[in-house]
Amino acid sequence: MKTIAIIQARVGSSRLPAKVLKRLGDADVLSYDIARCRAIQGVDEVIIATSDLPQDDAIAKWCEEHHVACFRGSEEDVLDRYVQCAKQYEPDYVMRVTSDCPFVDYEMASEIVELMAHERKDIVLLQGELPRGLAVELIAYDALLKIHEVGKEPRHREHVTYYAYEYSEQFEAVRYTVPSNRQAPELRITLDTEEDYDMLSKVAAYFNDPLVSSVDVIRYLQETPEVASINAHIEQKPVI
């Protein structure tokens, strides 16, 4: 089973421009993304997919300097960006990762890949509530092509797998139960605002390890509420 991880990344952000190039500990956000995705067992290739706008030349340059595969496509039609990127690798499965999640759970992602290797379904559904910023999505390449063909609404083009959740009856799913030590939905471990960056910087400084276990990050935030509360009030943008 050939599986690729595609990390969507761009410089443009209404709340925190160029957030993925910001320093995080001794590295930067994209370095955390790449290190953790490369640690996912069963993933054959890790690619950053950015837009073809001039402002995202900075991301393409970062990829060249760090010897990371880079694909450039539509800024607004993220679904098409994923499909055109994946076509170059002809995978069986595509893992979707967003670059604003520098502590994505690579250990759990490894278990999800292993589960799909046995089940061979269209998509994995997570049972349980994670902190925002730890999850990955795993979808069959054929299912992604179907979504690309039939998903026409803006929410389908921007959010890549949204159609599969909205019309779940059209897809075969396998369920993965989130371990109890990861079920902490009150925590926010993602990067959208200055408050998020402040909190994540404190986590990175404490561990000083891009491959720190997400379980340890959760435990640290639960034991240091003064850090977890820095961005606890931030609301996620709705899907429209």
TrEMBL record:
Entry-linked Pfam families: CTP_transf_3
CDD domains attached to this UniProt entry: GT2_SpsF
UniProt keywords, alphabetically: Nucleotidyltransferase, Transferase
GO terms assigned for molecular function: nucleotidyltransferase activity
GO cellular component terms listed in the entry, alphabetical order: cytosol
Top-level taxonomic group: Bacteria
Keyword Transferase listed: yes
Protein name: Acylneuraminate cytidylyltransferase
Species in which this protein is naturally found: Caryophanon latum
